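Give me the fold.
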Amino acid sequence: MTEDLDELRALAQACLDADGGLPRLTDDGLLRARLRAGTTLDIRDADDVLVATGSVAVRDGAAMTSGLVHPGHRGVGHGRNLLAWARDQAGSAPLTVTCENVNPAAERLYARFGLERFFAEQVMRHPLGSVPDVAAPEGVTLVPVADASRADLFAAYAGAFSDRPGFPDPTEEEWLEELDGDPEWRRDVSAVALGEHGEPVGFVNVLGTWVDQVGVVPAWRGRGLGAHLVVRALAGLDGEAWLSVNLDNPAGDLYASLGFERYGVRGRWA
């Protein structure tokens, strides 16, 4: 199994180097979840080197597929063959394609198979060589999550996101339990923003080197608080920082203005 993962990791890294995308694609857990779930198909060259792979998992009447084709072996039909195979494996079950590093040729292929994109995020990377200085709005105090009220953190989250379509509306206990269960939650870098009367008005959560969530309650938007929350988080990180944002979210422009660079796209098709 280790040798198999090493092969998959080398293939995934070659695709990330060419296309960008979700850097965690090379992690063991994600490799297994995306490329070794259910039935798999490997394509090898004359030297027995893995150059393309795909998997299909059918559960509860629905099918999900993921695949990779090495950049040096594209344009010869491997992607088309993998997708046709996945459709055959799915049978009558509706097929969803999960792609963590999209390239234009893959998007054209999905369209030829009648698949439509219903979700897409751009992955963004910050090299942390130069982090801009963004002042806090007047009257705002940032408190690291390690020292903040947990109730204030949840209130900031709910206040920032509850007006958005599809808000999952978790309980405070459910939301905090999920964060507590993540060993990469940086309580020292994550923060709650409090207004002049001590009310929670925004927050940022950082998982490892990922700016996972940034939110500002409606009454405080447009004052630069979101930008301040992000740069304060960046100042506490080393090496590089990452985030992902929906392609149609104007916050992508804000992140670019703070020094984040686009590192590919991930998406879903059905």
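The first strand starts at residue 39 and ends at 44.
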